[in-house]
Amino acid sequence: MRTGLSLFLIPFPALSLPALASVPEQVPSAQLASLATLEGKLIITEGEGLRLATPGGDIAVTSDNPQLLHTLQDTRLAGRQVKLEGRRKPDGAFNASQIVVVRDGKLYRLRYYCHVCNIPATEPGPCVCCQRPTELEEIPADQVTKDMVLVP
User: 23: which residues sit within 8 A by CB, 6+ positions away?
Assistant: First the structure.
């Protein structure tokens, strides 16, 4: 019979390496020109996917970042004014790399949070601990600190 303590490792994706995506990556100066920002209302439809309604027309939105893509698909953001940073794709779609919500002229970063377990997450879904749904929180951009876990 073994005695002593056993160590159980619980996966904690909220603090995994992808959570560091909120730290700006170093982009070669040659690629800086291709970065763009789009602002408009986020449209989420099952049949047509994600679109951003801009003054110039609707633009299809995608993301190579699964956490950001899941956030863009969160129906709680449907119809909200957002600002997306990313790059245009050859087919005209916009490949988003970062999202900010615009409300009353102010910018807000997003995170998902479980207030029961005090655990932040970078995408919608159940809490990694208690499995309750996480709440979508909007953090004023001027109050964001380097140690916060945020949606990219």
Answer: 146
Half-sphere exposure (CA, 13 Å, Cβ side) for 111? 21
Q: What is the pLDDT of residues 108-139, one digit of tens each?
A: 999 999 999 999 999 999 999 999 999 999 99
The tens digit of pLDDT for each residue in 53-104 reads 999 999 999 999 999 999 999 999 999 999 999 999 999 899 999 999 999 9
139-146 long-range CB contacts below 8 Å, 24 or more apart? Answer: 139/108, 139/109, 139/110, 139/111, 140/106, 140/107, 140/108, 141/100, 141/106, 141/107, 141/108, 141/109, 144/109, 146/23
pTM of the model: 0.74
pLDDT of residue 7 exceeding 70: no
Alpha carbons within 13 angstroms on the beta-carbon side of residue 64 total: 9
The secondary element (H helix, E strand) that includes residue 44 is strand 36-45
Residue 52, CA distances (Å) to 40, 71, 104, 140 in order: 6, 14, 19, 22
H or E element, residue 51: strand 49-54
